[in-house]
Amino acid sequence: MFKFEKDLSEIKIILWLFWHPHLWGECFIPINRDANLESEKVVFLAYFYALKIEMREKEIEKEKEREKEKERLEKKSKVILKRIVKRRKELGLTQWDLGALLNLTSSGFYKVETGKTKLDTTRLLEILEKLEISPEEFFKGFK
Predict the structure, then answer these.
(1) What does each of the 143 residues of the chain score in pLDDT, given as a tens digit?
(2) Is 76 in contact with 83 (CB distance < 8 Å)?
(3) Is the pTM of this model over 0.85?
(4) Which of 39, 101, 112, 130 could form a disulfide with 11 if both were Cys (CB 3.0 to 4.6 A apart)?
């Protein structure tokens, strides 16, 4: 993104920056690469801009990692929900039947079963109890 060119008496800097108000703010004025500025100011500005770019790139990378982790957990969650549906159907229960056993409305249980309502540990254990399956058996082979 930037490149230093050093002479004996001065440091010239060439910055190839794309102006992004969210990175640099509205007050950003590109450095005139032909201007004779004091070397300390030039070095400071170059360092500041490089740091700003590096920080933003790290933030973007962390955000991508968080998204990947979220997707990975959502996939696992779907596997758990599919196992609940499979077991419910094996027992010949409808969503309404299981919802009634759990003191939920049929639409309330539908939301749990489809993942629209997050399933906490207590509710999961309650569902497994009503489905007559132990947690060990339910999670057998789960990765």
Answers:
(1) 444 444 433 334 444 344 444 554 444 444 554 455 444 455 556 666 777 777 888 899 999 999 999 999 999 999 999 999 999 999 999 999 999 999 988 788 899 999 898 889 999 999 999 999 999 999 998 87
(2) no
(3) no
(4) 39
Domains of the chain: 2-62 (no CATH), 91-138 (1.10.260.40)
Amino acid, res. 131: L
101, 130 contact by CB (below 8 A)? yes
In angstroms, the Cα distances linking 23 to 16, 35, 47, 59, 66 are: 14, 24, 14, 12, 21
